[in-house]
Design goal:
Layout (H helix, E strand, L loop, with lengths): L4 H11 L5 E5 L6 E5 L1 H7 L1 H8 L1 H4 L1 E4 L4 E7 L4 H13 L10 H10 L3 H8 L9 H10 L3 H7 L13
Parallel strand pairs: 1-4
Antiparallel strand pairs: 1-2, 3-4
Organism: Heterodera trifolii
Protein name: BTB domain-containing protein
Length: 164
């Protein structure tokens, strides 16, 4: 059986084959090198388009693997959230989006202007979010008044507030 274009794109993402950029995502012990493809990212986001238009000004060139390619450091983005954002960009896949990562994914989507990802992140029921305080902070940061109000609504006493 032949593969669809979506299957090929998913394969590129999962294998990193032909990647021409690597993202060093995360901070401290949580850093991870994630391969990607500039062409796909540039078509998904005006932020990536601008970033890659002037590579010599915006990225540090290093050996990320056997091939020399661009390495972009992203210490403020969680690796799992970045990978989920890439899954959405490459294959419209949001299967990993949940209350534990929705706000981190929203942060990445806002930072890199992936508007199609905003709604799904905000559609995660507030009571499923792992940390309502972080959700409220993100709502204020991104001027999401309705979402901020949802975060302030009383919760059933059986739910945790994310104070861990």
């Amino acid at each position: 059986m032949s593969k669809s274009a979506t299957d090929w794109i998913k394969l590129l993402l999962s294998t990193g084959e032909y990647a021409d950029v690597h993202f060093l995502v995360g901070d401290g012990d949580e850093k991870e090198l994630v391969p990607a493809h500039k062409l796909i990212l540039k078509k998904a986001s005006d932020v990536f388009e601008a970033m890659f238009r002037f590579d010599s000004q915006n990225v540090k060139v290093e050996n990320a693997s056997a091939n020399c390619c661009s390495v972009v450091e992203m210490p403020d983005v969680e690796p799992a959230a970045f990978k989920l954002m890439l899954s959405f960009i490459y294959a419209d896949d949001l299967s990993g989006l949940n209350g534990d990562n929705a706000m981190a994914v929203l942060y990445a989507a806002k930072k890199y202007n992936i508007p199609g990802l905003f709604g799904p992140c905000l559609d995660v029921p507030v009571f499923e979010l792992s940390n309502i305080f972080m959700a409220y902070a993100h709502a204020c940061l991104f001027d999401l008044e309705d979402f901020a109000n949802d975060c302030l609504q009383p919760r059933p006493s059986s739910l945790t507030l994310g104070l861990n």
